Amino acid sequence: MKYSDKLNGYWEEGYHYYLEFRDNELTVRDYRRAICLKTEVTYDANSLESGEKTLISLADNVLSRDYKGGMMTEIRELAYENGKLLMLYYYTIMGETLYTLNKVENGPFDHILIRDGEFLEKLQGRWEQWTSSGKGTPLTIEGNSFRWIDDRPHRFHAVSYKYDSDRVYLVPENLIDGDFGICTKIEVLPDMLTTTMMVCDMSMPTSVFARAGMLDKIDVPASAKRQAVNSMIYNPNPVCVIDEASTPMTGFMGMQIGINIEQISKTKDDVSVEEGVTPKFCPNCGFKLDGKPIKFCPECGWSLKI
């Protein structure tokens, strides 16, 4: 059987999964580079090399199982298109996510540019947190460490991806560790820092930080103004598109911090999706919708299934 060198090699979407193709064998590693799947693959190499979208069939597609042996996560579809891999990932609790993977030359994390020299000095000191009622818990950066909420120092690197060098993130010092305080990522913007986080299966609002005296001058993203949503309860099982440079940290970190259950203040009626009716809030990110009939959330791209 013919195989393609366009597919052979290493592929990454960020921090969730890392794929390696060697002719008819696929090895999938998680964000800690532990092997979670090794299986045989088949595909039409002529179609792939000619530039057509090519489906890749897996002999085994299950990435993880529960304690009873039932499927927890799996690859529902894998395809090559326009020099990228499209992986439709399914998690029994969160539903489907479409990841875009880029080919990298020399193995995992080769596509990451460490930019401490350019950004570390600018990041030092105290950052005030924006909340709807005023200042929140400040974030402090000293050297290559930051402290916020749990007050433990979390060592980091400032990095970019080679294929998206204009965006800068703070990620764990060893580039793969999921224990990064309570943040799933921190993005460095001209006037502020923004974070997102996932606690168990609760999608939390974005946190926003600015220098002292700048909180009333920044353009606060709408995702910071929403409320927490428990996706275990409200997930309508849509497809959520993840850009390869937008999610550099895993969302499932087993964080050991207390979350006030009162943060989940929306009722099921607020976020459930009835057929033909646009919900009041996006079931995924909590973004307030204007009631107009739309198919996707304008904030996060979540399918509203109307």
Structural features, described:
The protein is mainly beta. The chain folds into 2 domains: 9-104; 112-230. Helix content is 7%, strand content 39%. It is built from 4 helices and 24 strands. It is globular and about 65 Å long. The termini are far apart. Residues 231-274 have low confidence and may be disordered.
Notable characteristics:
306 residues; mainly beta; 2 domains; 8-stranded antiparallel β-barrel; 4 helices; 24 strands; 39% strand; globular
Task: State the order of secondary-structure elements, H for helix, E for strand.
Answer: EEEEHEEEEEEEHEEEEEEEEEEEEHEH
Given the C-alpha coordinates, what overall shape results? globular
| Count of spatially separate domains | 2
Structural class: mainly beta
Q: Bin the strand percentage.
A: 35-45%
Total E-strand runs: 24
Largest sheet: 11 strands, mixed
Low-confidence stretches: 231-274
Rg is 20 Å
Number of H/I helices: 4
Spatial separation of the terminal alpha carbons: 44 Å
